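Retry 2 of 3 after timeout on previous attempt. Resubmitting structure tokens to design endpoint.
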């Protein structure tokens, strides 16, 4: 079956009627090669290539030649202008074989994509001193099938040379292959039973989960996605989640998410909320919607400060005992609900006579119990009753200082997830917090770090700029208001002026801050994604939204300086690796036009389960920089349309909202 009819590339579409069973460059093609144990024939060309057309007419349109290709190979067709990175890799391999490069390029690969031989144009019949294409096909297929040692020797030699070439002396190169490798290794240390990382204590570790998710986006490997979903499921059903009042505790002390360290941190809930939005957009699972909405309910009820920003944390202890505010005895539930409702609630939330922890019960839903939709409605009413009772207890202390960096994380999470859950009021919640920080925590255009009772800790940290610039960019994309983008640009300028380091990264402290023994410049994550990583992601988005390539160059400078430090401990730098993925692969969706159709495309784009996706909405192509890859295509459309761009390549116009997910999935996996 020829699979090119739905391709975006005009060159590929030229081959859609060939009798060849063409695949696009996608994981499914390589899986087909593995399953059938056939080598891959990779044909690379472009629409204006003369000899590409000659070879197509002689061989790819010829039924007899196509039959040989289909029997012996999995055949992949690539447009070098659409996929220059694929072309570059295999052109380098071809040159390593001593062949002068050119197009069409014809490469033979093993099912993992490793090249073992290749050439350019092959005639259909032997001439010009070249063998006939069918003879080449049969020779290569027989050599692969028979295990000819020259195949392995060529493959290993080519891979070695390619890797050496990709790693200049004195530099560290981490690309998409390395990111995939790290994702695979993290998958190997995930808990297959309870979710999350193996062992105890169990932390949410959101940078790891995001890294797995991004690996799934790149490769289509369901196991990576499922591991992230399993972790979210475990913590969302476990005692680490507050089933009565909403919100996640910092970690569980056991290996199965039951017993939390009961403190609740703003940053944990911000980072988890972002992941819940991705998970819900991917699965539409009621669990993830419920946890997100309950967590935002907790945020509004218990974490809002007078100015509209968010408090930092809630203590674990009340009345001198850890968790006392959150745990229940069976008698307390009976007194609150009555016998019938108490029995029903206890069954679903593991409230047992002698407790599940130190004689009391932590509500959780880790045990599998069948629940109908009617059961869920009844349980929600009972939780509300228990929350009312719980609010009569002495609550844990609240740290009500406003931290710019933690607030920035939550503001961005609210703006990002609002469309996924159909909750536009979350954008206003985020905007109020943003306004407070922009008005009350800024001096002379520079951010402070912490505010409480009118006192500002100043100057701020690079983490404050990292998170608040991210918040501004998220609100800009959610609302379309230019003021947020302008604020992000201004804060990035202040960050450069006062925090830039000689190696391309950023110091945590400002150049005019109180002197310390050393000026800190960490690169590894802790409970929060490292600010260097957040800054890198911001720079990539700023480049896209402003059209200023200088931001992209600055991001490259950061990676060049910091990746050598990260390379020996990649697990500790998941945040930086995620930022690198954004630099290498981050998609952009440009929506051109106005009216209901453009609005529908915008709403559909905002709900796609993709990380760091930049969405620009413009009324006409003239709003795009002349160098923007979508500029020419956008100018040619006469109705509202969306263009999905990765790097310098954009899709054909997408006019139906329900097509966006399909097109971006193809381009996600194609870019890997």
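Retry 2 succeeded. Sequence:
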């Amino acid at each position: 079956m020829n699979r090119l009819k739905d391709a975006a590339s005009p060159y590929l579409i030229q081959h859609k009627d060939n009798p060849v069973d063409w695949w696009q460059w996608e994981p499914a093609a390589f899986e087909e090669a593995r399953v059938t144990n056939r080598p891959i024939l990779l044909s690379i060309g472009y629409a204006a290539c003369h000899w590409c057309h000659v070879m197509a007419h002689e061989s790819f349109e010829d039924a007899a030649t196509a039959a040989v290709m289909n029997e012996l190979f999995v055949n992949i067709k690539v447009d070098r202008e659409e996929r220059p990175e694929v072309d570059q890799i295999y052109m380098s391999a071809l040159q390593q074989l001593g062949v002068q490069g050119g197009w069409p390029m014809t490469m033979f690969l093993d099912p993992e994509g490793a090249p073992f031989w290749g050439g350019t144009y092959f005639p259909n019949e032997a001439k010009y001193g070249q063998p006939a294409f069918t003879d080449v096909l049969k020779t290569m297929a027989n050599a692969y099938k028979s295990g000819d040692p020259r195949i392995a020797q060529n493959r290993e030699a080519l891979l070695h040379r390619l890797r050496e070439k990709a790693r200049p002396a004195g530099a560290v190169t981490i690309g998409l292959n390395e990111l995939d490798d790290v994702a695979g290794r993290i998958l190997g240390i995930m808990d297959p039973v309870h979710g999350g990382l193996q062992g105890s204590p169990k932390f949410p570790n959101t940078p790891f989960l995001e890294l797995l998710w991004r690996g799934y986006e790149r490769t289509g490997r369901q196991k990576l996605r499922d591991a992230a979903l399993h972790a979210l499921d475990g913590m969302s059903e476990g005692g680490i989640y507050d089933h009565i009042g909403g919100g996640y505790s910092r970690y569980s002390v056991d290996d199965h998410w039951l017993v939390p360290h009961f403190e609740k941190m703003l940053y944990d809930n911000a980072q988890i909320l972002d992941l819940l939005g991705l998970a819900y957009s991917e699965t539409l699972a009621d669990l993830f919607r419920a946890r997100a909405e309950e967590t935002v309910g907790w945020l509004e009820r218990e974490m809002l400060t007078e100015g509209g920003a968010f408090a930092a944390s809630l203590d674990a202890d009340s009345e001198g005992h850890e968790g006392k505010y959150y745990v229940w005895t069976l008698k307390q539930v009976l007194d609150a609900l009555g016998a019938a409702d108490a029995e029903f609630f206890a069954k679903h939330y593991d409230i047992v006579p002698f407790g599940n922890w130190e004689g009391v019960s932590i509500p959780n839903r880790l045990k599998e119990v069948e629940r109908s939709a009617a059961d869920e409605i009844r349980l929600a009413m009972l939780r509300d009753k228990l929350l009312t009772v719980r609010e009569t207890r002495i609550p844990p202390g609240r740290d009500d200082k406003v931290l710019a960096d933690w607030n920035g994380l939550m503001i961005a999470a609210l703006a990002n997830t609002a469309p996924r859950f159909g909750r536009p009021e979350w954008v206003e919640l985020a905007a109020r917090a943003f306004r407070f920080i922009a008005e009350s925590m800024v001096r002379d255009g520079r951010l402070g770090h912490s505010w409480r009772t009118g006192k500002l800790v100043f100057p701020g940290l690079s983490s404050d700029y990292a998170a608040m610039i991210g918040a501004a960019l998220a609100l800009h994309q959610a609302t379309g208001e230019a003021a947020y983008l302008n604020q992000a640009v201004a804060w990035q300028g202040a960050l450069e002026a006062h925090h830039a380091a000689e190696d391309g990264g950023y110091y945590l402290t400002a150049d005019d801050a109180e002197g310390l023994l050393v000026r800190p410049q960490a690169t590894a994550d802790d409970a929060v994604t490292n600010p260097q990583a957040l800054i890198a992601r911001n720079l990539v988005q700023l480049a896209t939204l402003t059209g200023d390539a200088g931001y992209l160059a600055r991001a490259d400078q950061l990676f060049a300086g910091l990746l050598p430090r990260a390379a020996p401990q990649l697990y500790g730098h998941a945040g930086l690796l995620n930022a690198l993925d954004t630099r290498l692969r981050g998609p952009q969706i440009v929506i051109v036009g106005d009216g209901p159709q453009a609005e529908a495309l915008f709403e559909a784009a905002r709900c796609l389960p993709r990380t760091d996706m930049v969405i620009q909405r413009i009324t006409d192509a003239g709003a795009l920089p002349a160098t923007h890859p979508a500029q020419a295509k956008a100018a040619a459309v006469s109705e509202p349309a969306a263009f999905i761009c990765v790097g310098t390549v954009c899709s054909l116009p997408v006019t139906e909202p329900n097509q966006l997910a399909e097109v971006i999935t193809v381009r996600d996996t194609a870019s890997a």
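Attempt log closed. The chain has a mean pLDDT of 91.
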